[in-house]
Write a structure and sequence with these properties.
Layout lengths: L1 H21 L11 H21 L2 H9 L4 H9 L3 H13 L6 H18 L9
Helix pairs in contact: 2-5
């Protein structure tokens, strides 16, 4: 008796699922202008730039030290307008906390050359 009821329930579920697959669903579409598509693309790049900067450990630790919850920052980031995001992303790009990587490499190279010439280190071993 139980198996017969189970079989009927399975057949009923299969019939309903097959009928629902066969019914077409209405689709809604609208024309997306080029300006809107570009704005969405730029917003995505701004958000990714800001998120990458905020994901660094030193930035997160400084925010926590100042009493700011990182989850709150993520929520507020979603509420910014496009112009605010652009301004914030531009300021983050123009003033990175670590400085210019090429300048740091250049300074290290100059220090190593001075140490080599003064005889403190021997990088270029003479044969």
């Amino acid at each position: 008796m139980f198996t017969e009821n189970l079989r009927r329930a399975c057949v009923a579920v299969m019939c309903v699922s097959l009928l629902s697959v066969a019914m077409p669903l209405p689709a809604q579409a609208a024309i997306v202008t080029t300006d809107r598509a570009v704005a969405l693309e730029q917003r995505g790049s701004y958000v990714s730039t800001i998120t990458a900067a905020l994901a660094r450990d030193d930035v997160r630790s400084r925010m926590v030290a100042l009493g700011v919850d990182p989850a709150t920052v993520e929520a507020r980031l979603g509420g910014l307008t496009d112009t605010e995001l652009a301004t914030l992303a531009e300021r983050i790009d123009n003033a990175p906390a670590g400085g210019d990587v090429l300048a740091i490499i250049g300074i290290v190279f100059v220090v190593l050359m001075i140490l080599e010439f003064t005889g403190v280190i021997d990088i270029f071993k003479k044969v």
